[in-house]
Amino acid sequence: MTAPQRLTDRKREAIIQAAIVEFRANGFDITSMDKIAATAGVSKRTVYNHFPSKEELFAEILNQLWVRVTAEQEVPYRPDLPLREQMHHLLTAKLQMLSDENLLDLARVAIAATIHSPERAQSMVTRMGEREENLTLWIRAAQADGRLKAVDPAFAAQQVYGMLKSFAFWPQISMGLPGLSAEMRSTVVESALDMFLACYELQ
């Protein structure tokens, strides 16, 4: 890679980091591309060269965040291991992701930014949904192996993730409650496992 390309990459990263700071501090609507440029130490033209609009810049931040916080969730289905053990890894990783302070801060910004823009909301929800695909694939594989009942895998995945989010995402987002203690995280995961397996596991 040539030096100019590396400089371009550094500027792009500086813009993204500056935008994260500004969005978290001021929200989506108040944050301007001028302020992002100033915080990044680049010209406004440079910002627009990388990101044609504030919406695209924000979408890229969310995309990178989902990628980072879900990177360790990749747990392929194993026919030789108990379902509970495998799901425990998946749900624990999900809870850890939902407790990420960067995620919570940007999720608050995202929700505020989408209240008056259904189109923007749909785009963000779609991006979030894409990052929950691993559990859906895992459920489908367990069904194919004859260990889970016939149910729409995406529906079942959304059910179990909904159980986690009711304790470890929405209370923090909507009411500013503190994150769960280690003991409470364990309780939430075990309870979600109990309900999911009682409903869908084939004996």
Automatic annotation (TrEMBL):
One Pfam family recorded for the sequence: TetR_C_7
DNA-binding region ranges: 32-51
Lineage summary: Bacteria, Pseudomonadati, Pseudomonadota, Gammaproteobacteria, Pseudomonadales
Species whose genome carries this gene: Pseudomonas umsongensis
Domain HTH tetR-type per the UniProt entry, residue ranges: 9-69
Keyword Transport among record annotations: no
Entry's transmembrane regions: none
Recorded superkingdom: Bacteria
Record-linked PANTHER family: HTH-TYPE TRANSCRIPTIONAL REGULATOR RUTR, TRANSCRIPTIONAL REGULATOR TETR FAMILY
Protein name, UniProt field: TetR/AcrR family transcriptional regulator
SUPFAM superfamilies reported for this sequence: Homeodomain-like (SSF46689), Tetracyclin repressor-like, C-terminal domain (SSF48498)
Keyword line: DNA-binding
